[in-house]
Design a protein that fits this description.
With 308 residues, the protein is of the alpha+beta class. It has 2 domains: 94 residues, Phosphorylase Kinase, domain 1, CATH 3.30.200; 134 residues, D-amino Acid Aminotransferase, Chain A, domain 1 (2-Layer Sandwich). Helices cover 31% and strands 24% of the residues. Strands 8, 9, 12, 15, 16 and 17 form a 6-stranded antiparallel sheet that branches. Strands 1-2-3-7-6 form a 5-stranded antiparallel sheet. It has a two-stranded antiparallel ribbon with strand order 4-5. The longest helix has 24 residues. It starts with 16 loop residues before the first strand and ends in a 6-residue tail after the last helix. The mean pLDDT is 94.
Length: 308
């Protein structure tokens, strides 16, 4: 595996902006229409902080898993993906095309619906913490006596939105309706749970528990029914657990950056980092074990190896 992670891009394309993991550019297509270029870098974040080094090939794995799911739902759910072929992106040199191969999504431009749509089929993470305090998750009453990582009888729609400090903030359905309207929230809930339930059943057939996931939706020109945007059902946007290892009452092993988070907790415990930027460098063994988990998730979901 190439030991160099792609941590940033510097393309001669307009309006670059960067998130924790992705770099975005505006693109003018040969048809004359505008599109959005999303590049999944190998940056890795934890506790809302980007680490000094990344996981080589991580962006490729995330892009290919998202592409698998977009194709899986292609005939049932409108989405923003136009192409994942670097040859369809105008204005790139051959060297840039080679560097970006496998890690780009050329997408329709949309106005993002300001609700993060979360489906929970198991009680874990922040949902478990809320349940321990109140017996509820996002205002939804749950049965007494649930254990950490228990399966819920019915999947929950638990929306969130961005607070002013940039962190996700859980909200109730009614709070979401105040933001975007009740009809929109009902549409988001129905679509989110439908997508989650079908993907959960497929993942189960591949030996994976899809514990929860999150989506974003957007509207083309701010009008009409929303379409699915961003990444979907990846180890960065979902919790995947090995089905054969699932045991309620404890934290589960995950096909994600759990290894990174576990390592960082030891750094924090040693007083060497306080969970504020800049993030520390990850040691080579943590990098290798983490990317191996991402690749294992890809193999189980798609049935094919991913050379990176």
């Amino acid at each position: 595996m190439n030991s160099e992670a792609v941590l940033s891009t510097d393309l001669n394309l307009p309006n670059k902006r960067s998130g924790k993991v992705r770099d975005l550019y505006d693109v003018e297509l040969s048809s004359g229409s505008s599109a959005l270029l999303i590049i999944a870098t190998d940056r890795v974040s934890a506790f809302d902080v980007v680490m000094e080094n990344g996981l080589p090939g991580k962006g490729i794995v995330l892009t290919q898993i998202s592409n698998f799911w977009f194709e899986f739902f292609a005939n049932r759910v409108p989405h923003h993906l136009i192409s994942t072929d670097v040859r369809d992106v105008p204005g790139l040199s051959e060297e840039e095309r080679q560097a970006l191969k496998g890690r780009i999504m050329l997408c329709k431009k949309t106005e993002v619906v300001p609700i993060e749509c979360i489906a929970r089929g198991y009680i874990t993470g922040s949902g478990w913490k809320d349940y321990q305090k109140s017996g509820r998750v996002c205002g939804i009453d749950l049965p007494q006596g649930l254990q950490n990582s228990d399966r819920l009888t019915d999947a929950l729609f638990t929306p969130s939105t961005k607070a002013t400090d940039g962190h996700d903030e859980n909200i109730s359905f009614d709070q979401g309706a105040d933001l975007v309207g009740r009809d929109m929230m009902e549409w988001l809930e129905k679509s989110t749970l439908s997508l989650y339930n079908e993907a959960r059943d497929y993942a189960a057939s591949r030996g994976i528990i899809l514990a929860d996931t999150k989506f974003e939706f957007g509207q083309v020109d701010g009008q009409g029914d929303p379409i699915l945007i961003d990444e979907i059902f990846t180890p960065d946007s979902s919790r995947f657990w090995p089905a054969e290892e699932w045991q309620p009452g404890r934290e589960q092993n995950s096909f994600d950056k759990q290894i990174v988070r576990n390592y960082l907790e030891t750094v924090v415990a040693d007083g060497k980092w306080d969970k504020t930027p800049p993030g520390p460098a990850l040691p080579e063994d943590v990098v290798e074990k983490s990317i191996a988990r991402y690749l294992e998730a890809h193999k189980l979901l798609t049935g094919s190896d991913l050379p990176i």
